Predict the structure.
Amino acid sequence: MLTVGAVLACAPADDGGREGRFAVTGDDANSHGLRGRVLPGPLTKPDVVLTDTRGQPFDLRRETDGYLTLLFFGYTWCPDICPIHMANLAAVMHELRPGVAQRIKVVFVSTDPDRDTPERLGTWLANFDRSFIGLTGDTAAVNAAQRELYLPLPQIGPADSAGSYLVGHAAAVVAFSPDNRAHVMYPFGIRQADWANDIPKLLEIRWDE
Amino acid sequence: MGRVRAVLAVLALTAVACVPNVEDRAVIAVTDAYAAEPVSRETGAVYLTIENRTDVPDTLVGAWTPIASMAHLHRMGGEGGTRMRTQDVAEIPAGGRLRLRPGDLHLMLMTITAMPHAGDTVDLTLEFAHAGTVTVRVPVLSYLEVSERATVGDERETP
């Protein structure tokens, strides 16, 4: 039987007034040839300590300092946006020149702390790439981090007859350059070839000038 | 290998043949169907396009697959947090179509009893209020392959 669920989930990242924050700022801003959306201004990395998939504390700033850090907020029950982002990143990481992947950290933060235990998150991420970092934390901490990045906060959809529910969340990957600031974000719809184009640039661009 | 390809070709033909009399008279047609290789047993997703080639509106009222205990129709997000009403989600207007695609609308498989892998096919039966049942054989794609299909962010493809 079919239950039709009008369920809010995986909302595209841009919502209402915040949308302008992620607007492409014109040819000049993207003169680097990036396929991601260049932010009008850089964002700082959230100062947050979460829990990794082994149950250990993970200080985001300290553990990712100096790495190209690709930060995504999602959940493991997610039917497409999350696994598609992870599959694309896993594929491109696999194709990078030797030594390059070691300069990158992919960080997946769960927006569904009730269901995404560290163990489950670890198992789920390992389906894509064992190097991917999975983090969980209490809702307040995770929401605060998303707020700092101007991402829409997660919304828990209504449960269906089986008790399952979808979680609306930001659909974008936020890319923190080795300077620990985010200059570019990647909305849903970005593909492996786009990452392959952008990752070497993200590692080399100096944003200071 | 050649034999495998031949079998797949036959299966692809079967999927079309399962749609009753597509060429003969106006019907419900199911096209561009594919499933994502599930990452866990809890969640799977199927995408397809339903074309209502009749002159009356029809409604998707049921979906079954032998590999999962339930198939739900889910609308993702919606810009600005719009919620779709049930009828909006499942109705296919006369002469119109309902398109399920990543980031938007999907048929959600729950409690997957037989995990399919990329390259497999799964049977999916859809029931419509007027047109009755339509069974399609759906290829299973990796999420990477799903990504290469049109997504909601890709507006170059005309709806």
